[in-house]
């Protein structure tokens, strides 16, 4: 599987460097075009779904991936942001169909469906570089 990336030179170069750092095979056609080859077990759809998130929601999503199910309080303990802020971000992720939500009494539990999970260590390493 491959992805051909075109765009601003600096952004394409940065993406090529990140992909190379992650061990992905890079074929550079020009300064503006990059063909990134992914291993057959790499799920490009999951990856592209995540990189579209704004940084604040991405941080919440990454924190949620550390749990099977979590409350806004659980997530706030990782991100350091207020529980109310995390509750709002989690509900935005739910509204965008990134995560699932279940109410049990007064508590709301959130989780990432298995089919959309990527290893958290991979995601954290990637997003630190972006």
Task: Explain what you see.
This protein is an alpha+beta fold. The chain has two domains: 41 residues, no CATH class; 79 residues, Arc Repressor Mutant, subunit A. The strands form two sheets. Strands 1-3-2 form a three-stranded antiparallel β-sheet, with helices on one face. A hairpin with a 2-residue loop joins β4 and β5. 18% of the residues are buried. The mean pLDDT is 77.
In short:
It contains six helices and five strands, in the order βαββααααββα. The protein is of the alpha+beta class.
Highlighted features:
130 residues; single chain; 3-stranded antiparallel beta sheet; alpha+beta; 48% helix; Arc Repressor Mutant, subunit A
Whole-angstrom Rg? 17 Å
Helix content: 40-55%
Q: Helix tally?
A: 6
Helix and strand element order: EHEEHHHHEEH
Shape designation: elongated
- Unreliable residue runs: none
Structural class: alpha+beta
Count the E strands.
5
Strand content: 15-25%
| The CATH superfamily title of the largest domain | Winged helix-like DNA-binding domain superfamily/Winged helix DNA-binding domain
**Architecture of the largest domain in CATH?**
Orthogonal Bundle
Number of domains: 2
């Amino acid at each position: 599987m491959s992805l051909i990336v075109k765009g601003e030179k600096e952004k394409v170069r940065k993406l090529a460097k990140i992909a190379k750092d992650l061990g992905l095979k890079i074929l550079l056609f020009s300064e503006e075009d990059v063909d990134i080859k992914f291993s057959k077990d790499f799920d490009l759809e999951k990856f592209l779904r995540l990189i579209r998130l704004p940084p604040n929601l991405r941080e919440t999503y990454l924190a949620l991936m550390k749990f099977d199910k979590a409350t806004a309080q659980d997530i706030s303990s990782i991100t350091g942001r207020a529980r109310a802020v995390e509750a709002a971000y989690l509900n935005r992720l739910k509204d965008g169909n990134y995560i699932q939500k279940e109410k049990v009494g007064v508590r709301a539990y959130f989780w990432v469906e298995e089919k959309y999970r990527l290893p958290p260590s991979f995601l954290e390493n990637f997003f630190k570089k972006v």
